[in-house]
Design brief:
Elements (H helix, E strand, L loop, with lengths): L1 H31 L2 E5 L7 E4 L5 E3 L2 E4 L8 E9 L2 E9 L4 E8 L12 E5 L29 E10 L2 E6 L2 E7 L6 E9 L2 E10 L1
Antiparallel strand pairs: 1-13, 2-5, 3-4, 4-13, 5-12, 6-9, 6-13, 7-8, 7-12, 9-10, 10-11
């Protein structure tokens, strides 16, 4: 009987611990205001797919490395964002052509021509000023040419009204006042080469 009581007590304690962690996690998100769109292999259900890229959960990340269609394919967030901070952890190959779109006004046509901003992930862009770290056709990379290929990196994007700031691995690579689009979707681009995202969090401002 004592043994049974002990087992029950341990089970109850374990259940309370799990419940407590869940409650703490939920409270932490509500207190900090961060919305997690990708966490390891989870998060594909937060996006709609456009194009033929083989986006999938693999090795602790959301991954794409080939496409059945020509041109860019994108994962488009189901939620729209206006003013926000964004943090993304990504891995790119040396030849990868990818990027993070934000404030995309048309969720069915996501590109810079339709009004979206794109934080570039393309080390070998022939137009070097719009290589990794830039905002494509809006703000050239400031200072050195930055390389993301072959390792994990962190992008931080701050969008408040027309003020847009991009940081790559803690270094400001683009900083500009621009207002072609003030609200819209976040989208992850695959154009060529492998790309992986293992964390994507957004905090509305």
């Amino acid at each position: 009987m004592k043994r049974l009581i002990g087992i029950v007590a341990v089970s109850v304690a374990a259940a309370l611990t799990v419940f407590g962690c869940a409650q703490m996690s939920s409270m932490y998100n509500s207190v900090t205001g961060w919305t997690t769109l990708i966490d390891g292999e989870t998060g594909l259900d937060n996006f709609n797919r456009i194009g033929g890229a083989n986006w999938r959960a693999e090795d602790g990340a959301i991954v794409a490395d080939k496409s059945t269609t020509k041109g860019a394919s994108v994962l488009v967030s189901k939620q729209s964002f206006k003013d926000f901070e964004l943090v993304a952890e990504f891995w790119a190959g040396e030849d990868t052509n990818s990027g993070i779109y934000f404030r995309a006004p048309d969720p069915n046509n996501v590109n810079t021509a339709s009004g979206a901003y794109e934080a570039q992930i393309w080390d070998k862009n022939p137009n070097a000023k719009y290589s990794t770290g830039s905002l494509v056709n809006v703000a050239a990379v400031s200072g050195a040419i930055y390389k993301a290929g072959g390792r994990w990196n962190v992008y931080e994007i701050h969008a408040k009204g027309p003020q847009l700031t991009v940081k790559l691995n803690g270094v400001v690579t683009a900083n500009v006042q621009h207002s072609k689009s003030l609200e819209g979707r976040i989208a992850l681009q695959f154009n060529s080469g492998p790309i992986k995202f293992r964390k994507l969090m957004v905090k509305p401002l």
